[in-house]
Design goal:
Elongation Factor Tu (Ef-tu), domain 3, eight-stranded antiparallel β-sheet, five-stranded antiparallel β-sheet, 47% strand, 2 helices, 616 residues, globular
């Protein structure tokens, strides 16, 4: 983000405003008002209808059914709040229903940020545990803050360049300007792309070249990561794969081969205007227009462009880019007779100047045209944008969707299938589709991701009030039998509770094979069209660890080599007889791939056995 003075004034004056959507089929209401300086929102994935709200000063609040609970879930401390620092990210463990883990990203001092885990006890966060210390900050801006668990069951986070250019270009030692990846216990995954053990590369790095990745989200169907990166000249949204390089601080919307280009971009606090070549700069054949600019245009597929001043006025008006054959040409679907003309201008859409939180609309609560769309907002312009995509993840259109969300911060789809979005000053809005012509079952989400051996939920409700009680059933219609409906297989909705989400609890039992499991669930009720939900259960293997060769002498204590994952904590235990109690003699958090540990009690025993255990 930028403009910390504007953020300060928003909090100080308590600015609020009524948002407005551009599609009259949606109805917006004010859902709740929490304290000022909201930095993010996230729904607990346990069917409890609890919205967790993070605030800059370290407060985590819970909103349940529109009511702000009086006691904080947690007040993270210490917290450092200068400029853009503070509590700036939150996500849940994929097995949250079992372990209650909540992860947050917080600035703890002028020189350090951390990933911290809390354990939920009711509505209170307990057992604060620092998982990843030492994340860099300069105590000003570009701290990042993105955090989430991916479809592979790994923990990801993003750190910016700290406003100083830290970590850019070829710097592979710093967390800065990076997307990083860890096991859920904070240890380093062995398959991270730049792992080199005790070498010079930071083994947590998963992708690089990001100015300020304030948020990211995982696409439900593909599982792909979409990183929202606040910019200097361009706001950029990237589809990021393992090992990718987004090019900061050399490129913004000008990435050459070898770097990833943004899927969505817009000029920071303005527009780009390019001149169309005279003569044959605008041609149309079979309702497809091709425009040639006099210089590099930098337009992206799906971008909305306004054409003006072309000699043949039938070319003028808004179009969406369908393809970019070259740096100086772009194509768009445009109805009209075949024609050739030229001159004029092509101007991009003014979206704002600080792109922030986004999510994919994954619910049957909206018509098919909205499902899978990507919604994101801009802090400076107070707008929400809607991006549509094709099956290959190409953007097909980007346009305004909502306005007047004063200092927009973040959004998320709720358990009722509505879109919720938060303003920095504390207002949280609910946006729900209302133009249903018949009975509809609302299932949220339509793609469930969990881990083998874990438990999670999906939620169901009705779109309109029924005349009588409705019995809704959930059954596994195909796929792996290890994915089970544990509870909520039959739910009853009445004229009183029809709009209140009810939970279907799912279990994915652990199996012996290393493959991920998938199943299809069918949601059905008499008189309603059935809905389908896909469940993916990822097999998360335990990280390998071992004890190396024992070195000993008759007079010196035994020395054992512990091999494992840097950042993981292990207990090394000894026993004089395999049938007796194992006694720990050291607990070690590995800083590298291995270390030697000494058993001080070994000289007291003629025979000694050893083992290691991974600690949570």
């Amino acid at each position: 983000m930028r403009k910390p003075c504007a953020i300060f004034l928003t909090a100080l004056l308590g600015i609020t405003g009524q948002a407005a959507t551009l599609d009259p089929n949606f109805r917006e209401t004010l859902y709740a008002t929490v304290g000022s300086r909201v930095t993010g929102i996230a729904w607990a994935p346990d069917g409890s209808n609890r919205l967790f709200v993070t605030r800059k000063w370290g407060e985590i609040q819970i909103v349940k059914h529109g009511v702000v609970l009086p006691q904080l879930f947690a007040h993270v401390s210490p917290v450092y709040t200068n400029s853009e620092c503070g509590l700036i990210g939150i996500c849940f463990d994929p097995n949250f229903m079992v372990n209650g883990y909540v992860y947050v990203f917080v600035t703890v001092s002028s020189g350090e940020q951390q990933i911290i885990r809390y354990t939920t006890a009711g509505d209170i966060g307990t057992n604060k545990t620092v998982l990843i210390p030492g994340l860099p900050t300069a105590g000003i801006n570009h701290d990042g803050g993105a955090i989430g668990v991916g479809p592979d069951g790994k923990l990801y986070w993003g750190v910016g360049d700290n406003g100083t250019g830290l970590g850019v270009d070829g710097n592979m030692t710093s967390f800065a300007a990076k997307i990083c990846r860890a096991n859920l216990d904070g240890s380093i995954p062995a398959d991270n792309p730049f792992v080199d053990g005790q070498g010079g590369t930071n083994d947590y790095i998963w992708a690089r070249g990001f100015r300020n990745p304030y948020t990211f989200t995982f696409q439900p169907v593909s599982g792909a990561m979409w990183v929202i990166c606040v910019g200097t000249s361009y706001e950029q949204i990237f589809l990021v794969n393992v090992g990718d390089h987004a090019g900061w601080n050399d490129y913004e919307n000008t990435q050459p081969a070898g770097f990833i280009a943004p899927k969505i971009k817009y000029r920071t606090n303005g527009t780009d205007t390019r001149n169309i070549a005279s003569g044959t700069g605008a041609t149309r054949t079979n309702n497809v227009a091709t425009f040639t600019t006099t210089g590099t245009h930098g337009f992206r597929q799906g971008e909305k462009i306004t054409i003006a001043g072309v000699g043949n006025s039938s070319f003028n008006g808004p179009v969406f880019v369908t393809s970019v054959p070259s740096p100086t040409t772009f194509m768009a679907a445009q109805a009209g007779p075949d024609a050739i003309s030229g001159s004029g201008t092509a101007t991009t859409l003014n979206q704002g100047g600080a792109v922030l939180g986004g999510c994919f609309f994954d619910s049957t609560s909206v018509p098919a045209a909205y499902r899978g769309n990507f919604f994101y907002g801009d802090y400076n312009s107070d707008r929400i944008m809607r991006a549509t995509l094709d099956v290959s993840n190409n953007i097909t259109s980007v346009d305004y969707f909502g306005t007047d969300i004063i200092n927009y911060i973040d959004n998320a789809v709720g358990p009722d299938g509505a879109l919720y979005y938060a303003a920095h000053a504390g207002d949280i809005y609910r946006l729900a589709y209302t133009n249903f012509f018949g009975p509809e079952l609302i299932a949220t989400p339509t793609v469930v991701r969990m881990i083998e051996g874990g438990t999670t939920t999906l939620t169901l409700c009705l779109a309109t009030e029924p005349a009588d009680d409705i019995e809704v059933t959930t059954t596994r219609s195909s796929g792996d039998p290890d994915i089970l409906v544990a509870s909520g297989a039959t739910l009853t909705f009445t004229p009183t509770n029809w709009s209140t989400p009810q939970a279907v609890q799912l279990i994915a039992t652990a199996d012996a094979d290393p493959a991920n499991d998938t199943a299809e669930l069918t949601i059905s009720a008499s008189g309603f069209a059935s809905q389908t939900v896909t469940v993916h259960a990822v097999d998360v293997p335990l990280e390998a660890f071992s004890l190396g060769p024992v070195t000993y002498s008759s007079t010196e204590p035994v020395q054992v080599q512990l091999n494992g994952q840097a950042g993981s904590t292990y207990a090394v235990e000894g026993s004089t007889n395999l049938s007796e109690l194992w006694t720990p003699f050291v607990t070690n958090t590995l800083l590298g791939a291995s270390t030697n540990v000494i058993d001080p009690d070994s000289t007291n025993h003629p025979l000694r056995f050893y083992r290691a255990r991974l600690l949570e």
